[in-house]
Amino acid sequence: MQNLKMSMNLKRKSIGFTLIEVLIAISIFAMLSIFSVQGFLLVANMEQRNREDVAVEQSFHKVWSLIGQDLLHIRQRPIHDQFGTVSGAYMAGRDPYLVEFTRGGLPSLPVAPGGMMRVAYRLSDEGELIRTTWSALDSADIDDVQERVIMSGLAEVQFEQLNDSNYFEEIWPPLNTQGDTTNLMPRMIQVSLQTIDGLEMSRLMPGIIPATTGGPGGGRGGNGGDEAGDET
């Protein structure tokens, strides 16, 4: 009889789980769930960062390509407004634009003889790099101005110009330059971009080497030819 009671007690003890066992199981399940969610979020964040990095790289590629094409075709050609005031062929560091210059290499049109136009870049308060163009050089027609945002999310944009003394100037023409500076051109141009996330990139672009012969309107190294048909 005693053996029978012991056997029944053992069976009762072997049925189900104790409270401690249930708590341990729940704790293990909760930890596995947390690790699984964290792993999923980590992978999702990595994919999101990869997509954002690709988007930033594409934006930089577009900006460098456009700025590079513009600076490749800078021309030594000043402009005149309706009052006869002359503005230099290349100017930098003067509000509201970071840089402003005459660009060639375009099809010759009635409104833009010689295939040239005026190009300027500025950085808005919202961190947008804006490209401004005028198809007619010597015109004050407001309707002729076209603006396009080519990149956003920027904290700083710099154009620095190499002078004849091999120093980079933020303002062009340099403030201490005497005489007529309307045709003064930089030898090289360094462009620097910094995003609001702290990413910095810079490029060194060729300028115009002063020529011993040839007048205003000359191209790189003093060559006056414009390559018609190049796209902006």
How is this structure best summarized?
The protein is of the alpha+beta class.
Major sheet attributes? 6 strands, antiparallel
Tally of helical runs: 2
Number of domains as seen in the coordinates: 1
Percent strand: 25-35%
Write up this protein.
This protein is of the alpha+beta class and 232 residues long. It has one domain (1-232). The chain contains two helices and twelve strands. The protein has helices spanning 2-14, 19-72; strands at 74-75, 79-80, 86-87, 90-94, 97-103, 117-123, 129-134, 145-151, 154-162, 168-169, 188-195, 200-206. The strands form three sheets. Strands 1, 4, 5, 6, 7 and 8 form a six-stranded antiparallel beta sheet that branches. The radius of gyration is 33 Å and the shape is elongated. Residues 212-219 and 221-232 have low confidence and may be disordered.
